[in-house]
Amino acid sequence: FFLMKILTFDIEEWFHILDHESTRNEASWNKFDYRLEQNMDRIFELLANNKQSATFFSLGWIAKKFPKVIKKIDNLGYEIGSHSNLHTLAFNQTRDEFKADLEKSINTIEDITGKKVKYYRAPGFSLMESNKWVFDELINQGIDIDCSIFPASRSHGGFKNFPSTSPVVVSFEGRNIKEFPINTISLLGKNLIF
Asked: CA–CA distance from 102 to each of 29, 39, 109, 178, 189 (Å)?
């Protein structure tokens, strides 16, 4: 048994709300005020004051819109992963749509940092039994670690029969990827997230 302390942040704007009609597409996002930069400065200050490391999962859209934020994350020595390009639930995409979205997000982040993106987290933890092919696409793009599994039922599906609630190596069609699922604890027969 071991305890890992891992702090992660999903880098998205306040209006990147899943399942809300008024913020469903990129065209609607230009109608809202941006708050990302000031909130990121608060996060950077808190991390520095507490000498805490972190991993940031950024939307490709955010990287394109706020390249200075991505450069600052990188310059401060934090890890940067992809959180998709346009914050679309993975189970609402075809395999080709997912692949194109993933490639765009990775390329945008890598063009800014000059470093390989090795981490991924799906919007809404939307990796499920029905779209396990996502693992194959992640491996194809050089992703080493995925953090998309929500090993319990939830509004965005969840992967309630995932065999582990601890970090694990997932094999998909003979290839491997490391998975860091969301933490759970069993209480009264239900898996609760913490």
From this structure: 20, 25, 11, 18, 36
pTM of the predicted structure, to 2 decimals: 0.89
Beta bridge partners of 171: 176
| Cα(164)–Cα(152) distance, integer angstroms | 11
pLDDT in tens, 45-54: 999 999 999 9
Compute φ and ψ for 51, nearest 5 degrees. 50, 50
Residues whose CB falls within 8 Å of the CB of residue 194, separated by 6 or more in sequence, listed in order? 183, 184, 185
CA atoms within a 13 Å half-sphere pointing along the CA-CB vector of 48? 10
**The predicted structure's pLDDT at residue 2:** 43
Instruction: Give the pairing type, strands 55-58 and 79-82.
Output: parallel
Q: How far apart are CA 91 and CA 24, in angstroms?
A: 15
Q: Give which of 116, 62, 52, 128 is closest to 90, Cα–Cα.
A: 128
Bridge partner residues of 157 (DSSP): 154
The one-letter amino acid code at 154 reads: R
